[in-house]
Design a protein that fits this description.
The structure holds 2 protein chains of 2 kinds.
Chain A lengths: L1 E5 L4 H11 L6 E6 L10 E5 L5 H11 L3 E4 L11 H21 L5 E7 L24 H20 L3 E6 L2 E2 L6 H6 L3 E5 L5 E2 L2 E2 H14 L3 E5 L5 E2 H7 L3 E5 L3 H11 L6 H9 L6 H7 L6 H10 L14
Parallel strand pairs in A: 1-2, 1-4, 2-3, 4-5, 5-6, 6-11, 7-10, 8-13
Antiparallel strand pairs in A: 9-12
Helix pairs in contact in A: 1-6, 2-3, 3-4
Chain B lengths: L1 H11 L11 H11 L4 E5 L10 E5 L7 H13 L3 E4 L7 H7 L2 E2 L3 H9 L3 E5 L19 H5 L4 E8 L5 E6 L11 H22 L8
Parallel strand pairs in B: 1-7, 2-5, 2-6, 3-4, 3-5
Antiparallel strand pairs in B: 6-7
The chains are: A alpha/beta, B alpha/beta.
Amino acid sequence: MRVLVTGVGGELGYQVASRLEADPAVVELAGLDAKAPRRRVRSMKVYTVAPMDRRHILRAVREFEPTALVHLGSWEPDARVAPRMAAERTSAMAIAVLGAAADLSSMDRLVVRSDITVYGRKRGSATVPDESVPPVPTTPWGRSLLEVERLAAGAGAAAGVPAVSLRFAPLVGQRFPSPLARFLRLPVVGFSALADPAFSVLEVGDAADAVVAALHRRPDGPLNVVGPGAMTVSQAALVGRRVPLPFLGPEWVVMRRAAGMVGVGLPDHLVELIHRGRTADGSTALSALGVAPARTPDVIRAVYGWTKPPELSVVRGAA
Amino acid sequence: MSAVSALGRRLRGDYEIDEWGHDPDLVDLLAPVVRPFMRVSVEGAAHVPSSGPAVLVANRRLGLVEPFVLLRGVRQATGRRARFLGVPDVAPVGPWLRRFGGTVNRPDELAALLRAGHLAALPLGPGLRKPLRAGALAPECIAPALAMDVPVVPAAIVGGELTGRWDVLLGPPVPRPTSRGPLALAELADNARSAVQALLDEAFPPRWPFS
């Protein structure tokens, strides 16, 4: 396999690349992102291209001519960049990379990062959706990723290759810029006094394992990858010996502002998670990929065991 | 002492909830408080599978207390924790009921419960005016049970809130439909409703004016 990994400057991209480097089935490896990975992957050729620079992205993809594309280049709002910039970058990168891949005759498989946020949490919607439930995103992050999924499905159909969208539960990891992990590690953690619903997470290493397994097994269509079990926000705060603070309605505006002042943005999809919960049925991925993710309660406990806080730098301003 | 340790567990967040928000630790904690107001006797518990997924189809009047009666009865007779469908997805009622095993009534929600190996209680239509008549069951509600070939066990709940005494009668799994295609679903729903009605008739035989 000649594998091109986009989003290799992030923690998930790095973990996927480092697994692929040790994989005997991978004959050549390249990475593409707006910035180079913080840690070196020795055998990987790196293309450093701005996400809005379509011409250079097309040239890089055509030059490398991959047989397998792993598209992880999506920007979660308030993870590294502000929500508007995140949506613009995610869309621009997906159009360029997947558009180029659709034209390549060498392509034989496509793996795309998505998120269970795409299901949305409208009133009365399924609490634990499986892949047969139609996605109806209710947040900008969900809409961005559903668009990426549609582009990937279109590119896969055009190239005649299987395209899998891995719908991850909210990702957390020590070096992963997760708005959820930052929020949970605040000294005072707000939770919805009227709901406090259950949510699930996925450790970033398990997500990387799922990506590599998807490359090998070549499934088609969406797959939910979710850490089994769940927790509520107030329960997580208690586990982490934080102060759980019940909030109602307009008080959330205050909470959002207060969190923003200490560098912790609360994007819409995180507020939705806190109020409406977020989980999904990951049993199909378990059999299709053979990856058994760590349980959500164990991952949340690990979040509070990190010695180094998750990154706080969020770039604001125009794209 | 156990109440103190349970409280300590709650304060440390050291308890399990599942993806639907079910909190068995809280249910067990509140069970002694509820016991005097909800005395449940169960007949036919052997019809409930000891493990694996199954659907319980049960009658209700308004449906406020019956789901809890059924869950409590099944728990004390079989040791299994059942779930019930039909909670409103509106805070604070919905999330609070989810703690006790409730979830929204959707076929994909039932399918997810069954895939996870749960015992799911599906309510028939309300029978406020005629409490001894089994209400209707929309065929699409029970579709996952047919698709996954899961046993459907009828349950009749009789009793009253005023006395706090309830009887839960469980019948043998309803026969699989002989039809195919869309008719199979309608047949399974009819079979389930008829089986619940038969249990209600058994508990309260119809009385004729001149008998």
